[in-house]
Automatic annotation (TrEMBL):
Localization per record: Membrane
Domain of life, per lineage: Bacteria
Annotated TM spans: 12-35
Membrane topology annotation: Single-pass membrane protein
Main location (coarse class): membrane
PANTHER family, alphabetized: GENERAL SECRETION PATHWAY PROTEIN G, TYPE II SECRETION SYSTEM CORE PROTEIN G
Pfam families per the UniProt record, alphabetical: N_methyl
Listed name of the protein: Type II secretion system protein GspG C-terminal domain-containing protein
Assigned keywords, A-Z: Membrane, Methylation, Transmembrane, Transmembrane helix
């Protein structure tokens, strides 16, 4: 009669399971941190694109005014060329909708008859993106003012 030998290692040992769980935990941590960095870059890209679109619209606005100008001059992001109301000759103003930007975004606006600048916080909160009528489009450090140029 043959003796049956029972193999006691039918499943995984506790140590093997703990190693697999640890590896899965490490991989998920790496993936989540990568997603967080991607989200920050996406927010920054959206802000930069919105401001670039504003610059294009501002130049169209300037060209449609008679005489050409960015009037009415303002340092408010809700009035003048930064608002959606019509100008004196019926040309619609530009509209900076807060709903188009991420929730954390702060805007700093400034316009005169011949110049404008628009600055917005980036995701880090310590850096700002600035566009102006001279074609500047760059990152600035420190809290911006409502001036009409990118420092």
């Amino acid at each position: 009669m043959k003796k049956q030998i029972f193999n006691s290692s039918r499943g995984f040992s506790l140590v093997e399971l703990l190693i697999v769980i640890t590896i899965i935990g490490l991989l998920s941590t790496i993936i989540l941190s990568s997603i967080s960095n991607s989200r920050a870059r996406a927010y920054d890209s959206k802000i930069k694109q919105q401001l670039a679109s504003f610059r294009t619209a501002a130049e169209i606005y300037f060209g449609n005014q008679v005489p050409n100008s960015y009037t009415p001059a303002t340092n408010s992001c809700t009035s003048g060329i930064f608002n959606d109301v019509s100008s004196a000759n019926g040309t619609p103003g530009l509209y900076i909708a807060a709903g188009n930007l991420p929730d954390f975004t702060q805007l700093f606006c400034g316009a005169t008859d011949s110049a404008y600048a628009l600055k917005a916080t980036l995701y880090s909160g310590n850096e700002y993106w600035c566009v102006d009528n001279k074609g500047s489009s760059r990152m600035i450090a420190g809290t911006p003012t409502s001036g009409t140029f990118c420092p």
